[in-house]
Amino acid sequence: MTVPEPETAELSEEALEFGRWLFAQRCDFLKGVVSLDGLPEGEGVELAFAGRSNVGKSSLVNALTGRKTLARTSAMPGRTRELNFFRLGAEDGPHLTMVDLPGYGYARASRSLAKTWTSLMRGYLKGRASLRRVVLLVDARHGLKDSDREIMKMMDETAVSYQVVLTKGDKLTRAEQDKIVGKLQGEVARHVAAHPDLILTSAVKGIGIEELRARLAVLVQE
Ligand code: GTP
Ligand code: MG
């Protein structure tokens, strides 16, 4: 089966270069936030990484910035319990804020804890003026789950621009990768606030990381 290429513009060499450059800049942990009243003031371009628990959000932040331990990762779901704010870029140069969010859909977390994280994440996503794009991570092996669809619906309704990124692509064969991308493209395209690009990544093998850097860096230039 041949999967049609997504109908999006090819990345130029300049865009790839700027992506590489930006994500090689300094990156500093700014703040971990446990409640909405602790949110730092929004400044410049903000990107948030959302998705089910254990999907690989923190790993992707590390892969993009080329730093292994910037965001804490764990094989146990529910590692990230705060909204973790990072600033990428020098004081006086192009920069962006990246937010590593706690995961949702973690069945074994106690119900009250899961509720706290989920309402924190939702409250942030709904009311953040500086939020330019949400990178919505989906496990390439599993595709979209109902919990993902709920968040997508909420972002469609509140006009929060988001982009679906598949993770753990290294766990699939090339044919399986093409199959899941083809399968999800149609569904993603039906969501009004979703960006049409569907990028398959692997934080472990570095698949799709260059492309994602370039696609995100463009937001700083716009
Ligand atoms: P929470 O903070 O709990 O919501 O999880 P998270 O989405 O931040 O996931 P995290 O980055 O902590 O990764 C979860 C597990 O998946 C870890 O064991 C990672 O090593 C593993 N993982 C993350 N990305 C990849 C990937 O691209 N490939 C493979 N094979 N494993 C990955
Ligand atoms: Mg995490």
List the helices and strands and how they pair.
Blueprint: H1 13-23, E1 27-33, E2 45-51, H2 57-65, E3 83-88, E4 96-100, H3 111-126, E5 131-139, H4 146-157, E6 162-167, H5 174-189, E7 199-200, H6 209-221
Parallel strand pairs: 2-4, 2-5, 5-6, 6-7
Antiparallel strand pairs: 1-3, 3-4
Helix pairs in contact: 1-6
Guanosine-5'-triphosphate (GTP) binds at residues 51, 53-59, 73-75, 77-80, 102-103, 167-168, 170-171, 202-204.
Give me some keywords for this one.
222 residues, alpha/beta, Rossmann fold, seven-stranded mixed β-sheet, 7 strands, 19% strand, globular, disordered N terminus, binds guanosine-5'-triphosphate, binds magnesium ion
CATH topology description? Rossmann fold
Q: Quick check: average pLDDT?
A: 91
Query: Mind summarizing the main beta sheet?
Result: 7 strands, mixed
CA gyration radius, whole angstroms = 16 Å
> What is the rounded distance between the termini?
37 Å
The bound ligands are: guanosine-5'-triphosphate, magnesium ion
At CATH's second level, what is the architecture?
3-Layer(aba) Sandwich
Kindly state the percentage of residues in helix: 25-40%
Q: How many beta-strand elements?
A: 7
Unreliably modeled segments: 1-7
Oligomer: single chain
Shape: globular
What is the domain tally? Answer: 1
- Helix and strand run: HEEHEEHEHEHEH
Q: What is the CATH level 1 assignment?
A: Alpha Beta
Q: What structural class do helix, strand and pairing data support?
A: alpha/beta
| Number of DSSP helical runs | 6
How much strand content do the residues show?
A: 15-25%
